[in-house]
TrEMBL record:
All copies of domain Nucleotidyl transferase, residue ranges: 20-231
Pfam short name (any one): APH
Top-level taxon in the UniProt lineage: Bacteria
SUPFAM superfamilies registered for this protein in UniProt: Nucleotide-diphospho-sugar transferases (SSF53448), Protein kinase-like (PK-like) (SSF56112)
Organism: Longimicrobium terrae
Aminoglycoside phosphotransferase domain: residues covered: 255-448
InterPro entries: Aminoglycoside_PTrfase, Kinase-like_dom_sf, NTP_transferase_dom, Nucleotide-diphossugar_trans
Listed name of the protein: dTDP-glucose pyrophosphorylase
Amino acid sequence: MNPTETTLILCGGPPNPTNLPLGAGQSNAMVPVNGKPVIGWILDELLFKGIRRATVVVREENTQLRGFVERVYRERMELRIATVRDSGSIVRSMQAGLEGETEPGLVRVVLGDTLIRDSFTGDRDFVYTAEVEDSRRWCVAVTGAVGEVVRLIDKQELDEPPFQALAGYYHLRDGALLRAAVDESVLAGDTELSDVLRRYMAVHPLQAQQAREWFDFGHIDNLVGARRRLLQPRYFNALTINPVLNTITKVSQHTKKLEEELAWFQLLPEELKVLTPRVLATRDAEGNVSVSQEYYGYPTLAELYVYGDLPREIWSSVMRKVLLIHQEFRRHPGELEPEHVHAMYGAKTWDRLDALRGQDPAWQEMLDAPVITYQGRELRNVDVLRDAINRGAERLAGSAPISIIHGDYCFSNILFDVNNQIVRLIDPRGSFGKSGIYGDARYDIAKLRHSLSGLYDFVMADMFDVRREADGSWTSQVYADARLRSLAGDFDRMVAALGYDVNEIRFIEGLLFVSMVPYHHGHPRRQQLLYLTGLTLLNDVL
């Protein structure tokens, strides 16, 4: 039997509450960073490097982490889950991870709170190191003249910083020796990874290599910096962060989106600007627009909803808070021609569906079917519903309560400090049929509902399964906690108490789901579930 390459991701240690944001759940590996948990960043990096086989070591009781890994990555890579029964040492986690390997060759060891984007290849044994100032929180590597590790010092106060800390990746080519070193360490009662490495180093020297792209999620101060550095631009050409001034700058070229967003911030009444980051804007000689705003490290409600562990009563408080903000917006009525409202619900929907038809012949076939069977229920398809949708759009246009709206008032655009109930709103739409701050207030409520009841953010996190059965029918399952699903009824009662017709909100929500499908080209499974969710809502209310 040939030796196998093994990649161990160690997530079996106890959570450190001093390093976990409130509501982060059971594990540092599940702390959300810009819409994705730490373990997701690690596994995606392995896939990017061409590594498609890994063992994730978790605590037996950590069902959240195990469930996420199995559900989201099971079809993308060959994963094995190894469990440890107690919140034991990292050495026992390594032992559990290696137990299933009959003939280990190269072993890559990755700590579950670390992302390293440097190469994981090499023809010698090495560890990555990174420069730190505080030796008390790290295992420090002392190196020789040619970069070989000559000594490891665990979490002691040392003089003369900076220090070279072990960064969380270990490239060990002799799996048999590593397993023996782990077993010896367990028998000796050793608990630190450095104990294993010392035994390994006695036979094979370790080279220290400086990590160029290292993201540490295991310490709260470094987590903040990692979150900033990993920000991904959405609609813009580039995002940059000034860590001293705590500002984020968006740069865009020849786009209306950024100009509409900027105008929204500038036109917002002064008393509402406290709900948004402060804004500075510039335009260079080439016409490029850049917008600088205060940067807030608060998690989004989407991150808390999908990956958090907040109780139902906290979510009830959150819902009341975002609806109170909505009511503040409603205190500022405006004017908008009915044809602009109708365009948002009618023309936009059909334009988007026409675009979807052109993306793939499979969508042409699916949209042309008069009936789609989903979850055992026959649903009238959009062409059958066309007249009813158009009549519904006309009713909405004729009864729209026009006020200031955010325009994209969904969980991913609401930053929320749970400890202090502080909200900051980001990425407004800036138009509703035409540019401006006014729109149909019901649209913002429908956006909230599509996150809370429609579980949109779970779909974006790939926390679902959707499939077409042999008979052509469709089934799906979204992996949301039952306690979150129970919030839908609470939210609808709150919305009704504000005077809204819940069926109107659900109709708008259905239009949102079906019209967003072409924007998710490249993610066919997400597209399928988004469409089926929207079609279900439309059948419910029409």
